[in-house]
Amino acid sequence: MADARLTDEDYEMLASFRFALRKFIAFSEAAARRDGLTPRQHQALLGIRAMQGQGAASVSDLAAFLILQHNSTVELVDRLVAAGFVARATDPEDGRRVRLALTGSGEARLAALSQTHLDELEQIGPELRRLLARIQRYRRRVRGATRCGDAGG
User: Fold this and answer.
1) Which of 15, 85, 132, 148 could hold 106 in an S-S bridge, CB 3.0 to 4.6 Å?
2) Could you provide one GO biological process annotation from this protein's UniProt record (predicted)?
3) Considering its fold, how many domains does the chain have in total?
């Protein structure tokens, strides 16, 4: 792949994709703040809810999801419990593990915020799809150039 030369268009494509992602993150953070949550609290609520289908999340699971240290995650969960958004329960199968679940208030807050995010994704979806298609075309071009270079050597 070192033989593939990046063009001005390739750099523009990568910058545009990164910009689109950053715009969505900025939107997400602002939406969380408008709803009275920090962006990290919103991410934690989303992570806890997402893991619910696989069984209740533990603090370790949530730390991995958030890419945070365990002690930072404990502090975050403490704040969410104090706010009434999350409940802790001892795992019935392993008394050493603490399981996390959203409370009714946490579910309601997350549902409203998630709908806002889905609405935004519907708006920006066409642009993201266009950028992803450009990236895929680039990858095919690079793979094709690499194969041609290998065949000639």
Assistant:
1) 85
2) response to stress
3) 1
Above 90 in pLDDT, residue 151?
no
Rg (CA), the chain: 21
Residue 1 has pLDDT above 50, yes or no: no
Tokens of 40: 């990290």
The pLDDT tens digits of the residues spanning 14-54 come to 999 999 999 999 999 999 999 999 999 999 999 999 999 88
Residue 2 lies in a domain: no
Closest CA to 133 of 2, 20, 3: 20
Q: Which residues share a beta bridge with 100? A: 57, 88
39: its two tokens: 């962006």
Q: Residue 85 gets which letter from DSSP? A: S
Segment 73-88, tens digit of pLDDT: 999 999 999 999 999 9
Q: What is the pLDDT of residue 2?
A: 52
Query: In 10 A of CB 117, how many CB atoms?
Result: 16
Query: Residue 24's domain is classified under what CATH number?
Result: 1.10.10.10
For 126, how many CA atoms within 13 A lie in the half-sphere containing its CB? 1
Provide the residue range defining the domain that includes 111.
Answer: 8-147
